[in-house]
Every structure is written in C-alpha cells, then in structure tokens.
Fold this sequence. Notes:
Strand order of the largest sheet: 2-10-9-4-5-8-7
Number of strands: 10
Structural class: mainly beta
CATH class: Alpha Beta
Largest sheet: 7 strands, mixed
Amino acid sequence: MKITSPAFADGGLIPRTHTCDGADMSPPLSWADSPPGTKQFALIADDPGAPAGTWVHWVIYSLPPSVTHLAAGFPTDPETNNPVSAKQGLNDFRTVGYGGPCPPKGPQHRYCFKLYALDQELSLPPRATKDGLLQAMKGHVIEEATLAGKYGRGGN
C-alpha cells in the first residue's frame, strides 16, 4: 500500500497553505494498492519531533474501502458523508479534524501521515483521540503506509 500527495513529495516541504501560516487546510492525499480484505481505512497525522512529545494533527477513521483519496480542505465535522463518509477525532489543538503544521521557530519538523488498512469496521464514535483509535485498531491493522513532509518557521 502506498500513500501520496500531489501537494508534496515524500520527505518534501509541506506547502504553506496546509499549515497554520496559510489556510490551514488538509493536504490532498491519495492511496493505492490496498490489501485484500480491507474493510476500512484510518489515518493519523502527527509530528513525532514536537518539543513536548508527539503532537497529533489529524485523526480520521471509518473511511470505506472504496475511498482512495481525500481532497484538500477536508471538512472538519466530527462525522460527515460529504465528500466521503468518515469520522474525525480530536487533534492536540483540541479541535476536531485537521490542524496543520504550526511548529515553534527553529528547525523544520517532520510530519507523518500514516494510513492504516483495517480488517474490520470500527464502532468508534466521532471525536476519538489518537490513543482511542490506536486501541480500537489493535489486532486489526492489515497494512500501514506513511507519507512524511517537512515544515519549519526558521529562526532559533
């Protein structure tokens, strides 16, 4: 399984429009080659190198197996059927949906968009935390794929 974005290459710079310094809208994401038996997808975006520990930027789950992409600017509703059916959880900004990179001044941070293919449908309600999603997925992840991007604000 592979996850990509037309907005940035794996290991490349995340465009400003997808950060708190721009429009703070989620980047477009696409995936392919999902494993047989996939019943749902989930995605977690985080910054594993944040000063206070991993910072969660996006928790989205209950994506049907027919979904192979998310358009830029995905709605921030806890539960949506438009443009695709999905539930979203809380990020570390204490909001639902996507919260873009917003690092302190200093070196670039690395942001990981990790896609999970699951062998069952989750019964998790909207507004779950990353930890709640990871617990619900335990033993049901068939495959994972990661797309990483960088963003920084310069200075020291």
